[in-house]
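Researcher: Hi, I'm a grad student and pretty new to this. My advisor asked me to get structures for two proteins we've been looking at. I'm not sure of the right format, so I'll just paste the first sequence and hope you can take it from there.
Model: That works fine. Here's the first sequence with its structure tokens right after it:
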Amino acid sequence: MERRLARPAIPPPNPSSTISPLMVDARTRQWLLLVLVGTWVLTGTWAHGADEQAPASFPEAPTVTFEADVQPLLTRLGCNSGPCHGKSRGQNGFALSLLAFDQDFDYAAIVQEGRGRRIFPSAPDQSLLLQKASGKAPHGGGKRLEAGSPHYQLIRSWIESGAPRTPADAPTIVRVVVEPATQQLAAGESVQLRAIAEYTDGRRRDVTDSAAFQSNDRTVATVSDDGLLKAGALSGETAVMARYLSHIAVCTVTIPLPGKIPDEQYAQLPRHNQVDELVWQKLKTLGMLPAERVDDAKFHRRAYLRAIGRLPSVDETRAFLADTGADKRVRLIDQLLDRPEYGDFWANKWTDLLRPNPYRAGIKAVWNMDAWLREAFRTNKPYDEFVRELVTAQGSTWKNGATVMFRDRPSPVEIGSSVSQLFLGVRLECAKCHHHPFEIWSQDDFYGFASFFARVGHQGGLSPPISGTEEVIYTLPKGQVTHGRTGAGVDPKTLNGETLALSADEEPREILAEWMTSDKNPWFAKVMANRVWGELMGVGIVDPVDDLRATNPASNDPLLNFLAEDFRSHGYNVKHLIRTIMTSHVFELSTVPTERNASDLRNFSRYYRQRMRAEVLLDGVNDVLGTTDDFGAMPPESRAMQLWTHRSSSLFLDTFGRPDPNQDPPCERTSDVTTPQILHLMNSPTLNEKISKDDAQPAKLAASDRPVAELVEEVFLRVYSRMPTNSEVATASELLADPKNRRAGMEDLFWALLNTPEFYFVD
């Protein structure tokens, strides 16, 4: 039961005394404040004039209340964060909802739990809530505020007034904004940010003192607890988040490089399509200049690895380098997109994302889904059709590969979180248990979205992990998801939309697919455009590529909007999207930084190097050496890119980042280089055996009677897809000088080149 204790009476000052504005004791100030507040409560206005609106920085109610004042402060002080009392089981017997998403729970925990032992209205300074926070009593979280500070006094005032809650009919917050919303600073400069809450009655309240601030990249800019933004020494761009209750606002901060670049220099940059124009505009804002254009050999290798996931052959490289046509790079891209390897490479990527687990879905079902994916990319199926067929799939898991997505993840909450992340770039997983810490999504949004899959029926099959038999996916006449917190049934609800009460004749998944692929959907085209850009360019315009949210803004929003709209207007043609990106001048840039872009990691002033995917790298090793691997459940001489299940054993693929099929929700692979990967290339018995085979390329080249310089050239073309320099020819020739030891020297040369970053990185 809520306790409301009366505020102790404060006697008025001596009326015979003379009160000076500069000489007012504490008792007089308290008495004047009560008179002022009393006048406001009785008349509904401030004492100084009925027609004058109250100052914007004051709350409408005269008292400090829990929801409006105390709960935001708990977030700012970190009391309800994950490492503290916001963790699932709380801390030392005291639990709060994570980042204040459950007001009733938090109020009960502070005011009523433990027979109200945490607050003491008759002696507020003795309240356990203040004693621990101010360090007067032992506290595992340390001192969170100073005794007597404004924050301390705010909580003390709330306790002293009986711990009131905000009235149910009080104006509610519509949104929170940050002022300024964008800011350009020079290195070391600072500016004060203000968080403003806007209410349903039109009032704007400055909540900077209670808001929590956070910078996405502290190397670019930092922000203090009080909202003081300070630019770092590095140029770049970042977002600074301001949180107040469940509302989030973002300030975009830009720190350009010092020095003025003439406009003519940007005007003279090559522009192959709109991609270049939008990237140059962003670089101009940052005072950066792009890197040089990469040479033909590196472009040739890059295009092969990015478009079809394989190295060019020696003959293909020689032919491209000998071609003198001005349009040869564009012609190359068109040729690559028509090759059969294209379908295998991009299907392999989507197998990662959909990730059918053979231990849950069964071997035959996984093979069927893999075949469905490869056929979709070989025929260049429009992306909206691709997604629609997956989301609405029905039938046998042995006949319709798209249905395996529901066999692999039979629970509506599992499939709901996967679909939202894969096809909308919205990570709802956090909202399953609490309000999303960095977004607007609540538990209602999570369970409302999952409810679209509540009527997915399963007939036949066995429960995991024994799942070898056929299963039929169909639509049930009824079904609901149960809300994780309230236990109530939840109707389907689109993100940012209304709850839908569907009849038995309406198929929820059809309605969801229609909404997802609609031209008005703000996420659908963007996340695919961003995903493809990240695959081709080494980093997404939004990074991670499937995490689109206000607090993780795009590094170039106009560019992402253009790619999404262009993708949509061309019928969701994935090959068109790839071609648009690869034919831009931005795709041709060198990875070598310059003085005007050395600090750039997100704005595409240069190309970003990235390690090859595991399957691409293994196939590359075999192509270079002329060897093959034997994979289980695959025909002889199959390529790693053709594998249809992760159950095919391969220590190499596991070492270089083959995904774990048990991981949920799905995510992109990491391209990080690890110590085990480097040691594997250096010391792997399997790789050494391949290099030493009698029918491998090292032995064949060593046995030929070709001049040593030609042999070195052949090796470099096989490994690096380029001609060697004069110094490289001289050094390599020393290894091959002795005819009696030429094979050993050739094996050493191959081993040395395969262990260099130039080989296993896409440069």
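Researcher: Oh nice, that was easy. Here's the second one.
Model: And its structure:
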Amino acid sequence: MGTNDSSGHPASSRQRSSVQSLRRRPRAQVLIIGGGINGVGTFRDLALQGVDVALVERGDYCQGASGASSHMIHGGIRYLENGEFRLVQESVVERNRLLRIAPHYVKPLQTTIPIFSTFSGVLSAPLRFLTHKQQGKPKERGAFLIKLGLSMYDFFSRDGGTVPRHQFRGRTRALAELPRLHPGIKYAATYFDASVHNPERLTLDVLQDGEKAGASGHSDARASNYLSLLSMGGAGNPTGPTGGSTVQLRDELTGEVFDFTADVIVNTTGAWVDLTNQAMGAASTFMGGTKGSHIVLDHPELLEACNGREIFFEHTDGRIVLIYPMGDRVLVGTTDVDADMAEDAVCTDAEIDYFFDLIGHVFPDVAVNRDQIVYTFAGVRPLPKHDATQPGFVSRDYRIERRAGGQEAVSGGQAMSASGAVVLSLVGGKWTTFRALAEHLTNDVLKELGLERKVSTAKLAIGGGAGFPDTDAGIQQWIKAHMSAGRDADRISGLLTRYGTRAEEVLHYLDAGPDRPLHSTRELSVRELEFMARNEQVGHLVDILIRRTSLAFRGLVTGELLNEVAEVLAGPLGWDAAAKTAEIHHAQEVLERFHGVQVHSLVA
């Protein structure tokens, strides 16, 4: 269902330390359900406040919508048209903040809007603003509206701004800067936002910050992936022995079930919030998610045409879409259609055709074909229920729904007994504002517990962003200082890109024993894989390919790589021959089913 790719053969029967820590003491003040960026951000913030907090995620961290985002950290210029000025201001402030506290993953992104008219959309824009619906046939916004929007955007960016103001270019100058743009453009507007090239690893950094706060004595913070909520109540009793509520949890890798009790339960399961509440005996109808799909292209010509910029524009159907370079690949997205939660969220052939059409709209002489697609992905945005409102106009803001302990919920006309714990359900939320959202949610939890905030996260560096060099020269100096016999600049650069300054911890681990690079890729070594297995809660082979590295995203997974990585992971993860084979087949299935990638097997 949805984007859950955690199904497959059990990895092993071994007890994971992350699960053991929860089973040994099956109680916490707060239990967070959902390990996307918002749940993980709240986990970190609560841990820093000294709260006894636990987090469980049914799949891998950042596996759902958080990992299927457009990889942007942006102020949301298009939210201005919805009148969501508070969200735009918060988004811009948080974008600027993440550029400072997570510089290892969040980078400035120069963005250009190609414009084909001067006054188009002026008459329909007020009606769209008032009704949140498209009035008549979609019309592309002209230069007047875009100039007005960018001027407002600059106004919101003035507080703590770290990016330049927007610029407008006429046709001649715009085509001089981007010669492959459609020759029919009249103007091009350029401004700066930001991107996150490693959302999965940024999520992991935030999680580990929370765990380290617990380990250092600030709190007793514990978290485990591949641990799902089955139901409310343990041994038929929904109320814990000392108050709060008891839920049943299941280890998705071993099938083992155990009880866990908490005073406050925080539901951050995104598009699955209603289903999670239903499992806890209090069905809700908060959510109305929309599916967003993307494709990744290995296309040097399109990469060159972008000239290092994101191309952000309104397609002919009124959808806001984007094309932008990520390393040596090009990301194209996104769609915005109502999601069926009973079906897998995957990129369809029709959506691929749509992406090719939008590329042709902006770069008409750049040909694209399906052979150039190396990866596809889709996720369900955790949007609120929106009835007749068109998906593109649904608010991207968030709210927190509270259900008091002992309160009864009604589903289908029948009263259902609710738990003794207070349940807070997060409705909405976006990548850019995760820190501020986590702060808001944490403050609500602290109020429930009668506690005060001790630490602000506003200026606190995230993970490997602490001490990260702030100039290109500084990065080169860091790389040079960490080179050694057997490790060249490319290898050190790769580690710095993957871990930020936490690469020093990885290097110490690599130096503690014999190591060698993999035969199937020079980007990984045997001991680095062992480090991931021992320190980053790897549950499946596919976790390495999609979320601990970007190998799948860039289309670099081969049958040889599957075999070699599975062989190395087998030791620390306790896989026997049958488990290794099962993991390889599971990885192939996930890559093909959810990401359109076929990898030929080297095992029977």
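Researcher: Is there anything I should tell my advisor about the second?
Model: You could mention this: The two ends are 28 Å apart (CA to CA).
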